[in-house]
Amino acid sequence: MSVTTSGLTAVRAGLLDYQAAWDEQRRLHEAVVAGERGDTVLLLEHPSVYTAGKRTEPWDRPMDGTPVIDVDRGGKITWHGPGQLVGYPIVKLPDPVDVVAYVRRTEELLIDVCAEFGLAAGRVEGRSGVWVPEDDRGPARKVAAIGIRVARGVTLHGFSINCDCDLGHFDRIVPCGIRDAGVTSLTAELGRTITVADVLPVVERHLPTLVTVQD
User: Fold this and answer.
1) Angle at 174 between CA 54 and CA 209, to 5 degrees
2) Which of 39, 120, 157, 169 has a beta carbon 3.0–4.6 Å from 91's, enabling a disulfide?
3) Could you give the domains of the chain?
4) 114 part of the active site
């Protein structure tokens, strides 16, 4: 199923193996670069998998031999799996390309999605992604992660937002290389079950934020 708003096509890809999704990203990237296709966002879930960005250190990885897929995005290691919504925007950035501004727009999209469910989340200085601030429940904790790459002016990889996933998967790694903060989910924070199916249409509605460049 696909939905188009503001010239951006969202494709609901369901549960998709990481390698198959990576192959589809590259296919779409070529088409967008060539001008044969408009901006497209893949929205999906992965079977359980760890992926390591280019800045991953050996000590960030699982110590129990769990397989890890090395990828060409920025950032460090993270987990993807059931109960987590993953978005891969294949979007042509305006000239001059401003990667930081694009990351900020992605964060804004995710902050707005969290707000719709009643969760106040925001940014942490010097760290990408979307965070629940430190409170009486513990230190700042990440509810959504961002890791991107830009090639020939078009984005690859993207974001993930934890809906009702098993947070125990993050215990095997140092998520995003950050030791002094936690990982959380919409369900854990709000005390009620928030599924990928609940979050998907809300993310779709906010996708135009990705391509809305502020003057």
Assistant:
1) 65
2) 39
3) 1-208 (3.30.930.10)
4) no
Q: Are strands 141-151 and 182-183 parallel, antiparallel or unpaired?
A: parallel
Tokens of 129: 């992604």
Average pLDDT of the residues in 198-209: 96
Question: Which of the residues 114, 163, 165, 176 is marked catalytic?
Answer: 176
Q: Is 74 annotated as a binding residue?
A: yes
Q: What is the pTM assigned to this prediction?
A: 0.91
Q: Token pair for residue 35?
A: 């001008």
158 is in an annotated binding site: yes
Is 80 annotated in a binding site? The answer is yes
**SS3 state of residue 187:** helix
72 neighbors 22 (Cβ within 8 angstroms) = no
Q: What's the token pair of residue 114?
A: 């969290």
Phi first, then psi, for residue 107 (nearest 5°) are: -60, -40
Tell me: is residue 79 an annotated ligand-binding position.
yes
Q: What type of residue sits at position 60?
A: D
Confidence at residue 64, expressed as pLDDT on a 0 to 100 scale: 74
What gap in Å lies between CA 29 and CA 35, rounded to an integer? 10
DSSP character at residue 91 = -
**147 annotated binding-site participant:** yes
Give pLDDT, residue 190: 96
> Is the CB of residue 75 less than 8 Å from the CB of residue 147?
yes
